[in-house]
Design goal:
The protein is of the alpha/beta class. It has one domain (6-205): Aldolase class I (TIM Barrel). It is built from six helices and eight strands, in the order E-H-E-H-E-E-E-E-H-E-H-E-H-H.
């Protein structure tokens, strides 16, 4: 079992030029989970994007908000907002959390969670951390004592130079948005992130 940091990419909230091709290239490049989040766009438009992505990669796509598309596409899971009631699904279930204390509530029935912002957000101006790194490290260390727990992905302001700090805090992975979509070549940015993450073995920080 690998001790490398896991990496998830979240879509830009707005549609990008040639986005389906970019997402396909990300998945071809080894991305294990792509979170499809378009909060201000119609279900039909989101479905059109899915139609442009090869079906073989749909199992690696996690849907946000548009739960009705779970019936029409063989997707990998559904991501719940912090206030959203957990949906019944046979696929992966995840949720966004914004307080360390939320990790102690019903997280045993989730496969993984996003926790943040850990650092000031790259894509959302003024979106700053509400939790100190020592607090996060303490909560995540307690989580390890549980027989069953979700994986915890750091969210918000994730840059390559923050990787050692993220691993030291005890996170299992990172979720990327601005550090990928804010670059001229998102696929290259993702690959560079993977290369940087491969230099860190999480077992050396436990």
């Amino acid at each position: 079992m690998t001790n490398l940091l896991k990496i998830i990419v979240i879509s830009s909230p707005n549609f990008k030029s040639s986005e389906a091709r970019t997402v396909t290239r990300l998945l071809e490049s080894g991305l294990e989970k792509f979170h499809l989040r378009k909060p201000d766009h119609s279900t039909d438009r989101i479905a059109h994007l899915l139609d442009e992505i090869p079906k073989e990669f749909h199992c690696k796509i996690i849907m946000h908000r548009a739960f009705e598309l779970m019936k029409d596409y063989d997707l990998g899971g559904y991501h719940h907002r912090s206030s959203e009631k957990l949906r019944k699904t046979s696929t992966l279930r995840s949720r966004s959390l914004h307080k360390a204390s939320e990790l102690e509530v019903e997280t045993d029935i989730l496969d993984y969670v996003f926790l943040g912002p850990v650092f000031p957000s790259i894509s959302k101006s003024g979106h700053k951390p509400k939790m100190s790194l020592p607090m996060l490290r303490n909560v995540l260390s307690k989580l390890d004592s549980k027989a069953k727990r979700p994986l915890v992905y750091a969210l918000g302001g994730i840059r390559k130079n923050k990787l050692s700090t993220i691993i030291e805090a005890g996170f299992d992975g990172v979720s990327l948005l601005g550090s990928v979509w804010g670059k001229p070549d998102p696929v290259r940015a993702f690959k560079e992130f993977v290369t940087s993450a491969s230099h860190y073995d999480r077992s050396n920080y436990s």
